[in-house]
Design a protein that fits this description.
mainly alpha, 2 domains, globular
Amino acid sequence: MARVLLGIALVVGLWFPLEEWAGHIAANPAAAYALSFPLLLLAAARATPPTEPAPREGLAWIALAMAIEVVAFGGDVARLGRAAIPLGVIGYLRFTGSAALAPAALAFFIVPVPHALVAFSPLEEVWRSLAESLLGPAGPALRLTSWDSGIRLVALFAGLGWYADARSGGSWRGALRRGAQLAMLGLPVQLAATIVAVALARMGAVGSARAFLTHGVWMICGLGIVLAIEVQQRREVPARV
């Protein structure tokens, strides 16, 4: 009963950040990749044994979340309030002992990459130039956005690497190392995706090219990596037994 009450209180307390987070994703469809991480967090938490409840640690995380929320909305910086969401989730999981820190920290990937970071470097034009040097011009109909820079895929791959290690019961240090290793694939994959998009645009399928860049590339990569992780985990279980 205490878990339920704490969960309800947390949702109520984080209502404004959650509303802003949902609005951000609705306004930026390319940020929808972050919606996969609540499911991955749940899968990692269920695949690993629960820990002893840590009320003090959990309350510390929750208090930090509430403090950030007050600063964000009191200072009229609503976007900062998104950071309160993963902190609150981690606090709940640690307070109840539902997950160790490594799987719980997947909550950080629930928040999409800030747009300011995505737009920091115009890498999307670099990828387009390289792709068109190979295939020829795609024409003005294919418009790239800052979300096509590859930073989004770096974040996605980092989260998937973290998930792979955390799901197998690894520590947060191992998850950080695995996440950093997989994140290095983000930019090369974005270049490959841009090449595919330019090829589609040159064939007249501009709509398909745009849909592939917005949703197709992260869905295909995410699903493929998760399936590979699941297959590897199933092969390791008999070996451990």
